[in-house]
Amino acid sequence: MSSDAPLIADDADGAKQRNSPKFLLALAPYVARYKGRVAAALVALTIAAAATLVVPVAVRLMIDDGFSTQSAGTVNRYFGAMVLVVGVLALASGGRYYLVMTLGERVVADLRAAVFRHLSSLDASFFDGARVGELVSRLTADTTQLKSTFGASASIALRNFFMFIGAVGLMIYTSPKLSAFVLIAIPLIVLPLYAAGRAVRKRSRAAQDTLAEASAYASENLGAVRVMQAFGAEAATNAHFDAAVEESYDAARVATLARAVVTAIAIFLAFASVVVVLWLGAQDVLAGRISGGLLSQFVLYAVLAAGALGELSQVWSEVSAAAGAAGRIGEILAIKSRIVTPQPPVPLPTPPRGAIVFDHVNFAYPSRPDAAALHDLSFKVAPGETVAIVGPSGAGKSTIFQLLLRFYDPLGGRIEFDGVDIKTADPAELRKRISLVPQEPVIFAASFADNIRYGAPGASEAAVEDAARKAAAQGFITATAQGYAMKIGERGVTLSGGERQRLAIARAILREAPVLLLDEATSALDASSEGLVQAALKELKAGRTTLVIAHRLATVLSADRILVLDAGRIVEEGTHASLVARDGLYARLARLQFETGAHALSGSSAAAE
After folding, report:
1. Maximum separation of any 2 CA atoms in the chain, in Å
2. Can you give the residue range of the structural domain that contains 407?
3. Is 290 part of any domain?
4. Both 56 and 69 in a single domain?
5. CATH number of the domain where residue 246 is located
6. Residues 484-523 pLDDT 10s
7. How far apart are CA 578 and CA 497, in angstroms?
8. How many domains does the chain have?
9. Which residues pair with 517 in a beta bridge?
10. What residue stretches are annotated with the ABC transporter domain (predicted)?
């Protein structure tokens, strides 16, 4: 995001600032990228405004001169000139509309891309508490609100601002006396609009917030539709969403009502002032102080000014509504990631070796600061070594992977990769050297090939197929109608757990990183597939550092070392044989899995103690 200006300042007045229309001015850096288009739009706008403001002059000349001469030719020339003016007005207005609208689309597209890039750069602790549905709502609904304001509303606002300034200036030139009455009325129109803007902004922001809540709830439940239906929760879920939608509607209705009231008041005041001025002008015409054509010219300018002011009042309401959406987007862009790349980063050695060191590491998740996940954890993994990490649930096994990938930073101690403290390295470069197979593989709504290629986008078709073959995934892939080009449903819902895991393993194989992190990588495989994958992993682990998390101890028997974790501490370390002989926690876990009958029951009792 370094190339994009943040939308808001991260200061104590942030909440107040996020509700201010001034906040929209922060879009200026995005607009400044397209100076040529802005200049062309302003030229078209100026021509369109000038052409409109010429019409009242033509009307005055036609009334005062054309009709008095009784010459059809003169009248025809005036009407011909007006047609020409209207033609220029139409062309300029069309050009202005196109330029301003496409500029708004372009700016909002850039803003959406900037928000998504920023979200993808935030650390894991942000997403621990964020709701993805709400973030998507900000990317869609809020930016759509901005697009409407910055596109159509900006076009209307600029046109009417030019028209208002030009019409007021020509009103004063036409009749200073009558203009004085109009100018007195302007503050009476503008001040209520400004005062009402706060209420409109507050209600519009509330409407956007309730819509985001409803979107988040819908996204969450549609993502788990099978669970919803399995538990018969459709009625309760529908009722909850109906209530959320109704609340969103009520908030939007109140916001719209506020905008409607403001617009109605502004239009009444604007045109009522025109009626009063017209009455005063009629008195001057009757007294012979001005001509009928001059009064017509003044009235037309007054109507143009009043209409422009009325349109500006409506746009002001829309801008006030957009300020809430812009503030919500600004809140995201103001968030700073806790995981940052130091400047300059310490380069990791080349070629990589895969040496890992945890040195007195302490850690607690930001969402659970009082529940320490790791306590003074220290261990080393030599290049090419396979180390298994076992222990009961909640012992801290997966936390080790999270820290090694630098999704979080430890609260104490240090973690080294090839002799470099990972806090001083570029996280992206660190992660390029690690392949992860998670316990719950993430499968995207893309083809089999694209899912395997996810960590290595430039890989060839042959490399993809080789990785799938080594992961024992080629069979179920080629059995489909389109093979590797077959599109998979979102989150891989049409695949079995074992098939999803084999795709994740193929993805890790294709990445060819020097360090492998296997988090229960074969837990969902049947015996036949597990044998094939274990053979592939054995080949893959050759020459690579491998950390294996496993609850099924049979999968770690061949590990060079086994670390036994309990409550965030290493309580035992050694090979399978030595740990069984020690008769500690590992031995009790082994008896639970490998023995039956009385031995298993006694082991279970011991583990419970």
Report:
1. 122
2. 348-433+515-527+543-569
3. yes
4. yes
5. 1.20.1560.10
6. 998 887 777 778 878 888 888 888 888 888 999 988 877 6
7. 34
8. 4
9. 436, 547
10. 356-592
158 & 285 share domain: yes
Give the number of residues written for the chain. 609
Q: For the residues 467-477, what does the mean pLDDT come to? A: 87
- Asked whether residue 301 falls in the same domain as residue 289, the answer is yes
Give me the torsion for CA of 268, 273, 274, 277, rounded to 10°: 160
2, part of any domain: no
Average pLDDT of every residue of the chain: 79
Residue indicated by tokens 């649930």: 393
CA distance 67 to 58: 13
Our measurement of the distance from residue 609's CA atom to the centroid of its chain's CA atoms, rounded to an integer in Å, reads 49
pLDDT digits (tens, 9 = 90+) for 269-278: 767 777 777 7
Interatomic CA distance for residues 384 and 353, integer angstroms: 8
Give Rg (Cα) of the chain.
35
Q: What is the rounded CA–CA span in Å between residue 329 and residue 208? A: 11
CA 205 to chain centre: 17
Q: Give pLDDT tens digits for 7-26.
A: 333 333 444 444 455 667 66
Asked whether residue 31 falls in the same domain as residue 136, the answer is yes
How far is it, in rounded angstroms, from Cα 391 to Cα 258? 60
Are 109 and 178 in a shared domain?
yes
> Is residue 580's pLDDT more than 80?
yes
The 10s digit of each residue's pLDDT in 85-103 is 888 888 988 888 888 888 8
